[in-house]
Amino acid sequence: MINLDAYRIFLYTAKLGNLTKAAEKLHITQPSVSYTIKQLEKSFGLKLFNRVSKGVELTAEGKALLEYVEQSFSLLKAGEERLKAMKRLAIGELRVGVNLTLFKHHLLPHLVTFRSKYPGVRIRLMHSFTKQIIESLKNGSIDCGFVYMPVEDPQIKVHPLLTVQECFVVGKAYKHLADKIITAKELAELPLLLFAPGSDTREFAEKWFASQNISIDSDINPGSIDLMVELTILGFGAALVARSFVTEELQSGKLFELKPSVPLPPRTVGFAVRNNISLSQATSRFLEILMSKEK
């Protein structure tokens, strides 16, 4: 395989039409240029240059080679420029996996900051649950993800970011229940609004009830947090949500927080990446923004 330096010498010699000028431009000796050209011609078994009075000129075969050599160096230069642009985040891609229940209140502000700083970086969002986000990280289809901890996987590294406190809320139809301590059994007997089986919040609810020897089912599985809140306000039952998602509704009296006899434990949300690999410039900078904002 002919090395790149030999092709660079060939390119400068072809462009300048003179061995001495090519040597000066490349900061090497004229004999080095002459030797390299001879070795190229020997390797191909073809004459690449004709010697003329003012220097050299390409043969038909040399012209054919020059076309490809020029394209190759142009592509390499374009590749270098692209890497430089990626380094300064003028271009690039950030692929994020996130649970939509975390998106509005926790991810969106950080993405807005990132977008304002690096508008040339394309942001791709994948909506999924923690288990799917972990698998997507491992197969390389996303760069990073917001997940509920703990995550026990040696291939994944998680940076703790924030704590989320879940709570059961009801609308005015069940307001009377907010004035007393309510057991898990009493909660399970209410119409429950929970996300679909397999979701992070649903698994959290099932584990909490199971710790008190109670199995549950949901009456309604809303597809979004906004729909869940609206249905709860309208009196369709009790919903399990993060308190930070319904702060306004609780303060305005549209929703009321129930008081379980066994408190719901807080949950930690982390920023997950693959372990022991180099992060892209975009992912590294996004993590820096996250960590600085959450301090």
Give a short overview.
This protein is α/β, with parallel strands linked by helices and 295 residues long. It has eleven helices and 13 strands. The two termini are 54 Å apart.
CATH architecture of the largest domain: 3-Layer(aba) Sandwich
Distance between the termini: 54 Å
Largest sheet: 5 strands, mixed
Structural class: alpha/beta
Give the integer mean of the pLDDT values: 93
Number of helices: 11
User: Percent of residues in helical segments?
Assistant: 40-55%
Radius of gyration: 32 Å
> What's the arrangement of strands in the largest beta sheet?
4-3-5-13-6
Question: How many domains would you count in the coordinates?
Answer: 3
**N-to-C SSE string, H for helix and E for strand:** HHHEEHEHEHEEEEHEHHEHEEEH
Strand content: 15-25%
Low-confidence stretches: none
Number of strands: 13
Shape: rod-shaped
CATH topology of the largest domain, which one? Answer: D-Maltodextrin-Binding Protein, domain 2
CATH superfamily of the largest domain: Periplasmic binding protein-like II
Structure explained in plain terms:
The chain is an alpha/beta fold and 295 residues long. It folds into three domains: 4-87, Winged helix-like DNA-binding domain superfamily/Winged helix DNA-binding domain (Arc Repressor Mutant, subunit A, Orthogonal Bundle); 93-164 and 268-294, 3-Layer(aba) Sandwich (D-Maltodextrin-Binding Protein, domain 2); 166-265, 3-Layer(aba) Sandwich (D-Maltodextrin-Binding Protein, domain 2). Helix content is 46%, strand content 20%. It contains eleven helices and 13 strands. The chain has helices at residues 4-16, 19-26, 30-44, 60-87, 100-117, 130-138, 184-188, 200-210, 225-233, 247-252, 281-294, and strands spanning 49-52, 55-58, 93-98, 122-127, 144-148, 156-164, 166-170, 181-182, 192-193, 238-242, 256-257, 259-260, 267-274. The strands form four sheets. Strands 4-3-5-13-6 form a five-stranded mixed beta sheet, with helices on both faces. Strand 1 and strand 2 (55-58) form a beta hairpin. The protein is rod-shaped. 30% of the residues are buried. The model has no long low-confidence stretch (mean pLDDT 93).
